[in-house]
Recover the amino acids of this structure.
């Protein structure tokens, strides 16, 4: 039959089917299934609830509201040492030779002599006796020679080698306004400048004098973990003073208790100083150093501890991201999707963007809320919280959102490849969470544990690391103590690499396969 | 019941993915176990850690594969609509998951036995000093552990009827507790959680030394996991009975 | 159909829509709208939202969605979850989706399956009206009796080959058998009269005769001459089913054991 009618012309009106429209379609798909968006909300809620549960369990007998002392830069610090001091007003200097530095270590069955390599004995100028106040110090250490350290995080090396009677170490600090300069000398005659410390706004009256301190020895888990108390004793000859020193006698006291990384022994329970001829013998324990992750944290919570709920949220978000694609395969909706949008690569990218954005937002929201609510609550329970600079906190929170988004996109891509939900969820959860469990449990030696956290998607958790590394603080910097082998963004990049590789494979399969 | 068993066995053995999943479980268990044991340092005094327990670390990964198998054994019936046929043929509904449970336990136990044997052999070649008596308990216990994981997964999936949610719930139950335990600072709470969490309690069966320092004794730990599995199966069976198909 | 829509790749040959492969079409729903699987729905999504995401992908909005919903008569069920729809409602929803882009070509796979009589009548008249607008409506079906009155052109495919491709009228004409059905209160008399002619006559039931070889006017005239009363005389219409059976005799792949039809 020949038709005499004119062929029909579509009157659908103008419009485009570009990428923006595709995004709109995928977003509409997501938000119109209650199970999915409600599930995302529940995942964010899980981040909050599990995080609060983990950090609110029990209470600690510390004083409520107590935190770690904070240094001038805001970092959490230990500020514990035995201080033999007088008041210095205005400019001046102190010069003193250290003639011996020994120590006592409290082993399991008996005490024996020995020192922690970072035990410190020397001269210090400190703005006040309050915890965390600015200071500059020059000291001798048993294992790392003479050091100048100031404001807790700064460390400069001086003359190497241990202190012996035949090889004493002469130390000098010179204060001029806001600047304190440190010098050392092997013989007391020719002086070498070690470094210069600028302490802005330093009060004109400071406390200055001799100090001795020693951190505990940290044993790694192979030997049972835990700390071994160590106390140091140093002999100083007559100090030489120049400038506005007060005429009072030298006062000796322990500042800051023993802190979280130092401890006195059963026999030597407190620091002390005695006169020996014109000099002093000073004994002390503790540390003047930033607080690092692990045992030094004591009963305190780090930022990532509050984010323990992220694991619960992660599982839920992986389930939803998987269902976002496998649901289409199961209901044969994939045919409709690919008929409506035949450019398949773009469909996949649109889906990835939608699920990634939603996951990022939910994860970020959950993380922000749990940190906001959890930290005051933990402090009220007597647990100090490890404070970090705002930029670090932002990195941790935003990074948590990103790592959840990357895991969701990874699951989406695997869902295209495998088309069945149970294997996808099992694979993504197992290779993201199990390496974390094995790596941080302390069962594996550091090498293999770090390998797991370098090579598997669990590397992404490095973005959450908030504990800092300081080479002048002796610690076991391993995953069980919160230290990841990769830098934060590098670890996240590994996880994103998995997701992108899976997306590439998924795009190829999606284009080639029959729908 | 015999007919139900027959039917379930036929279903399981004619499903192509069953054999692949069981094979996969064996491979990942042995591979991870061998990897862990080869990374442990040993000196003259002995190895750091418990050699048997370390050889059997692979169970932590193999259990995920077993969970897939058990979850899809029941949820695939819902997704294809076959559950209506099944319930019509077996009107006494609780017999369905019961028969599935029996059949699953048999195949999972067989595969786990192979996996455990493989892991221990690899461990024996790499590590010296695998004690005999306690190792036997650890081996047998690990096989039972895998069977209980299968039952836990079956019960959870019967209750939620959906493979994605079921898998998520099971893996969440298994993997989230250890992470939580590590964060908690209060030793009392830590101990309690280690006693009631399915994976840490269940894996206590693998310990061969230092038993007095464990938070829960080996067989008691396995019993805790058995309680979880029983509760899941009960819940699943109850919901199956009460709900419309 | 899946090959036409770019879902499956063909082992040989090409399928083009408007001269282009489907996968390179811009705004494909404005070129061709298809309904392949009415059951392809997310049960938790409402009908309106099911259409909305498809509309958005073509740059269309809620207004168009509401338009097509009222076209197919689903405006009252629009905010119900698609999982609770009956088969008829799902078909309507699928047709609505196919119409979103107001395409000049519609392609429907077995749209009549599982419909109740009312739905049936509705679809038939709806498709006819769409075709009357000038659209090409392609329907795949095996319900001969219904298509006979609706379709204007037929393509029969069997065992991967095109067996027939022509207008329905021509196809029916090729199997027209020129038979008449006669109803009379005096069948024996009529039989008597007619067997003397060259026509073939057989009885097909109480008071019914089948006559072939004579035109209807001649039969009426003959019987009227002899005074035989006639209640009804009608042409035995050729059916599409007959045409189909004849054409596909050799090409059917799966054949159930035939049960002889009573004629």
């Amino acid at each position: 039959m020949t038709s005499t009618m004119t062929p029909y012309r579509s009157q659908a009106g103008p419009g485009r089917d570009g990428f923006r429209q595709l995004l709109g379609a995928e977003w509409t798909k997501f938000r119109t299934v209650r199970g999915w968006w409600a599930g995302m909300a529940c995942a964010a809620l899980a981040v909050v609830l599990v995080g609060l549960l983990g950090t609110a369990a029990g209470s600690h007998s510390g004083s409520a509201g107590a935190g770690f002392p904070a240094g001038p830069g805001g970092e959490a610090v230990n500020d514990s040492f035995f201080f033999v001091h007088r008041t210095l007003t205005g400019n001046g200097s102190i010069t003193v030779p250290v003639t011996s530095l020994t120590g006592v270590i409290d082993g399991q069955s008996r005490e024996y002599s020995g020192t922690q390599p970072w035990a410190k004995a020397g001269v210090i100028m400190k703005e006040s006796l309050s915890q965390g106040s600015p200071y500059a110090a020059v000291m001798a250490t048993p294992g790392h020679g003479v050091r100048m350290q100031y404001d807790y995080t700064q460390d400069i090396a001086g003359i190497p080698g241990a202190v012996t009677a035949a090889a004493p170490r002469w130390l000098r600090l010179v204060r001029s306004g806001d600047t304190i300069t440190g010098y050392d000398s092997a013989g007391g005659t020719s002086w070498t400048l070690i470094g210069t410390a600028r302490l802005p706004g330093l009060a004109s009256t400071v406390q200055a004098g001799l100090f001795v301190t020693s951190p505990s020895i940290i044993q790694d888990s192979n030997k049972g973990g835990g700390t071994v108390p160590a106390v140091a004793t140093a002999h100083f000859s007559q100090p030489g003073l120049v400038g506005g020193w007060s005429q009072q006698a030298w006062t000796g006291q322990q500042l800051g208790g023993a802190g979280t990384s130092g401890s006195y022994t059963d026999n030597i329970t407190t620091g002390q100083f005695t006169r020996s001829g014109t000099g002093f013998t000073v004994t002390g324990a503790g540390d003047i150093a930033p607080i690092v992750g692990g045992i030094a944290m004591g009963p305190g919570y780090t930022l990532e501890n509050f984010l323990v709920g992220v694991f619960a949220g992660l599982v839920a978000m992986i389930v939803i991201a998987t269902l976002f694609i496998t649901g289409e395969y199961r209901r044969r909706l994939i045919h409709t999707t690919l008929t409506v949008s035949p450019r398949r690569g773009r469909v996949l990218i649109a889906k990835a963007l939608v699920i990634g954005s939603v996951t990022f937002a939910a994860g970020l929201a959950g993380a922000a809320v749990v940190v906001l609510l959890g930290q005051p609550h933990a402090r009220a329970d007597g647990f100090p919280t490890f404070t970090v600079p705002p930029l670090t906190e932002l990195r941790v929170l935003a990074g948590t959102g990103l790592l959840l988004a990357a895991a969701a996109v990874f699951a989406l891509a695997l869902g295209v490849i495998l088309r069945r939900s149970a294997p996808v969820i099992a694979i993504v959860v197992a290779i993201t969470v199990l390496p974390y469990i094995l790596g941080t449990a302390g069962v594996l030696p550091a090498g293999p544990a770090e390998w797991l956290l370098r090579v598997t998607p669990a590397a992404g958790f490095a973005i959450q690391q908030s504990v800092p590394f300081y080479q002048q603080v002796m610690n076991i910097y391993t995953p069980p103590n919160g230290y990841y082998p990769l830098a934060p963004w590098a670890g996240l990049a590994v996880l994103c690499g998995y997701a992108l590789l899976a997306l590439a494979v998924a795009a190829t399969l999606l284009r080639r396969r029959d729908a | 019941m015999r007919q139900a068993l027959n039917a379930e066995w036929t279903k399981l053995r004619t499903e192509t993915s069953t054999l692949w999943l069981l094979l996969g479980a064996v491979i990942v268990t042995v591979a991870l176990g061998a990897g862990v044991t080869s990374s442990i340092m040993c000196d003259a005094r002995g190895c750091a850690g418990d050699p048997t327990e370390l050889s059997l670390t692979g169970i932590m990964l193999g259990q995920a594969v077993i969970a897939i198998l058990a979850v899809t054994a029941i949820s695939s019936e819902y997704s294809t609509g076959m559950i209506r046929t099944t319930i019509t043929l077996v009107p006494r509904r609780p017999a369905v998951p019961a028969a599935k449970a029996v059949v699953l336990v048999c195949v999972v136990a067989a595969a786990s036995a192979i996996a455990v044997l493989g892991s221990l052999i690899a461990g024996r070649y790499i590590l010296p000093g695998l004690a005999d008596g306690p190792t036997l308990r650890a081996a047998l216990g690990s096989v039972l552990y895998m069977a209980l994981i299968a039952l836990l997964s079956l019960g959870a999936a019967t209750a939620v009827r959906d493979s994605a949610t079921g898998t998520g719930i099971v893996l969440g139950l298994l993997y989230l507790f250890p992470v939580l335990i590590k964060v908690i600072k209060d030793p009392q709470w830590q101990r309690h959680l280690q006693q009631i969490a399915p994976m840490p309690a269940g894996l206590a069966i693998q310990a061969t030394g230092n038993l007095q320092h464990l938070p829960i004794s080996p067989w008691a730990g396995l019993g805790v996991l058995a309680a979880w599995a029983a509760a899941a199966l009960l819940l699943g069976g109850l919901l199956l009975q009460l709900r419309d198909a | 159909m899946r090959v036409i829509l770019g879902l499956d790749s063909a082992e040989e040959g090409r399928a083009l829509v408007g001269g282009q492969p489907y996968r390179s079409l811009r705004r494909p729903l404005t070129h061709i709208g298809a309904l392949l699987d009415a059951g392809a729905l997310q049960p938790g999504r409402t009908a309106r939202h099911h259409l909305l995401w498809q509309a958005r992908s073509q740059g269309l909005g809620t207004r168009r969605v509401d338009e097509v919903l009222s076209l197919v008569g689903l405006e009252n069920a629009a905010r119900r979850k698609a999982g609770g729809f009956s088969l008829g409602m799902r078909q309507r929803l699928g047709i609505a989706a196919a119409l979103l882009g107001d395409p000049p070509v519609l392609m429907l796979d077995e749209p009549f399956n599982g419909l109740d009589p009312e739905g049936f009548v509705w679809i038939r008249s709806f498709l006819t009206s769409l075709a009357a607008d000038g659209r090409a409506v392609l329907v795949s079906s095996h319900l001969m009796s219904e298509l006979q009155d609706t379709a204007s052109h037929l393509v029969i495919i069997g065992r991967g080959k095109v067996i027939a491709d022509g207008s329905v009228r021509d196809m029916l004409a090729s199997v027209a058998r020129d038979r008449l059905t006669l109803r009379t209160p005096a069948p024996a008399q009529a039989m008597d009269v007619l067997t003397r002619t060259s026509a073939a006559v057989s009885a097909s039931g109480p008071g019914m005769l089948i006559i072939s070889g004579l035109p209807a006017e001649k039969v009426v005239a003959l019987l009227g001459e002899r005074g035989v009363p006639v209640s009804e005389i009608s042409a035995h219409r050729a059916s599409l089913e007959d045409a189909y059976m004849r054409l596909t005799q050799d090409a059917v792949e799966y054949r159930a054991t035939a049960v002889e039809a009573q004629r």
In short: DSSP finds eleven helices and two strands in chain B. The first helix of chain B runs from residue 2 to 14.
